[in-house]
Design goal:
- It is a single chain.
- With about 425 residues, the chain is mainly β.
- Helices cover about 5% and strands about 60% of the residues.
- The protein has a 14-stranded antiparallel barrel with strand order 2-3-4-5-6-7-8-12-13-15-16-17-18-19.
- A hairpin with a 2-residue loop joins strand 3 (about 95-115) and strand 4 (about 120-140).
Length: about 425
């Protein structure tokens, strides 16, 4: 208990430090929908390209498929958290380049055993983030230049409670019940270099709250003594969430840094306290092969009905998307007492056709991952490092291409639970 409390304290301080110091990168494509959707996979699965639907482990909180919780040890507590450093470069067809980097919090999750046939999990993670700034300058007028700025910030967070149930040998089902909450804002500002020009700013604020549900199933077929063939399914129904949406336009003289309001009240203002956000349904399937000891390989396919997304019946021009992930891991000798023999080596890749179709291009995304998980002596606790390189978008047709590199640091604490030491 003392070690668990110490770890919780360290992670809590890291969360606070990361939250206070974090500055999100400029992500122009987060302008659409509810922002850029997070990976929502545990670090152990991210190291395998995101492969997770037919994967379960006693030392991993695999919240991508809640049926996997059934693998937890009956007398152990599992804690899992991760943080990511990201460096990216944005490029346009005009050879314009913008670089940036940041550190972000990925997730925090806890896994517990209620009974041999019932395991549970709690967790918190970002569901989506919005952070973008785009400036357009019009110099066609002889007397002054008009600058139009588009900028947004915020995002949606997710707190989930998950459960898994063992129905019979090698077959389990589960669910994650999630509460989504947060706020994101989109703004447009039009300013002139002429001090007599009437400038304006239009703001769109969205305060979101609602519930989501993910159902999961896993089945593993023993193939003699060679290994297990695994199958996994997940389904997220299209449950609507709700938002308090406020739009307003203000006018002023001067710049946005030192404005002089024309009117005390906004020029235009509307508010809908119960706007309906039609979220998409999603379905995914995975297949895997492993011996449950030192190797695992798998592949996932996930389809999401983003064309169904709408705010009060108005679509944001999103289209259906799909993602393919393949990967695996290898442990030289998990029962050895030697440090290097217990290191977990992971490798994976993923390809995604995103929900964005701009200028007749459906933007795609490609990522490649390599991970190392280092054990702690005489314990199942471990620390991990994951390296990812990826690309998204294109420079064709006036669009933006993103090249990025990520380093994810994770900690997994696996400690005995419900046990009392005996005196000898």
């Amino acid at each position: 208990m003392r070690r668990i409390n110490n770890v919780f304290g360290v992670v809590f301080l890291l969360c606070c430090a990361t939250g206070s110091a974090q500055t999100l990168l400029n992500a122009p494509y987060s302008r659409f929908g509810v922002g850029e959707i997070g990976s929502r996979t545990a670090a152990a699965n991210a190291a395998m390209g995101g492969t997770s639907l037919a994967f379960q482990s006693a030392t991993v909180v695999n919240f991508a498929n809640p049926a996997s919780y059934i693998a937890y040890d009956s007398l152990a507590c599992l804690f899992d958290a991760a943080f990511t450093y990201k460096n990216h470069t944005l490029t346009t067809n005009a050879s314009e380049v913008q670089k940036g980097n940041c550190i972000v919090f990925d997730y925090l999750a806890l896994g517990l055993s209620v009974a041999k046939w019932w395991k549970t999990s709690f967790g918190f993670q970002p569901f989506s983030t919005m952070s973008y700034t785009i400036n357009q300058v019009d110099n066609t007028l002889d007397t002054n230049a008009i600058t139009t700025s588009f900028f947004g910030e915020g995002g949606i967070n997710e707190f989930y409670w998950g459960n898994a149930f063992k129905l019979f040998n090698n077959f389990s089902i589960g669910f994650n019940a999630s509460y989504l909450f947060g706020e994101y804002n989109r703004n447009r500002k039009v300013e002139s270099s002429d001090i007599l020009f009437v400038n304006s700013q239009t703001s769109n604020s969205n305060l979101v709250k609602g519930f989501s549900l993910t159902l999961g199933m896993q089945y593993f077929v023993p193939i003699k003594e060679k290994g297990n063939l695994g199958f996994g399914l997940v389904y997220t129904p299209a449950i609507p969430i709700y938002a308090d949406i406020q739009n307003q336009t203000v006018t002023y003289f001067g710049t946005g840094y030192n404005p002089t309001k024309l009117e005390e009240e906004p020029l235009y203002s509307t508010r809908d306290k119960n706007a309906k956000l039609s979220m998409p349904q999603s379905i995914g399937g995975g297949i895997s092969w492993g011996n449950g000891l030192n190797y695992f390989v798998g592949a996932d396919f996930t389809w999401t009905n983003w064309a169904n997304y709408a705010v009060n019946g108005i679509n944001d021009s999103l289209i259906n998307s799909y993602k393919i992930a393949v990967g695996g891991n290898y442990i030289p000798n998990p029962t050895s007492t030697k440090f290097f023999s217990r290191i977990v080596f992971s490798l994976g890749a993923n390809y995604e056709q995103t929900y964005l179709k701009l200028n007749d291009f459906q933007l795609d995304k490609l990522g490649m991952n390599f991970g190392l998980q280092f054990p702690v002596k005489r314990s199942k606790t471990s620390f991990g490092a994951i390296f990812e390189y990826g690309q998204m978008g294109t420079t064709e047709s006036g669009l933006i291409k993103e090249d990025y590199f990520k380093i994810t640091i994770s900690i997994r604490v696996h400690e005995p639970w419900y046990q009392r030491k005996k005196l000898e």
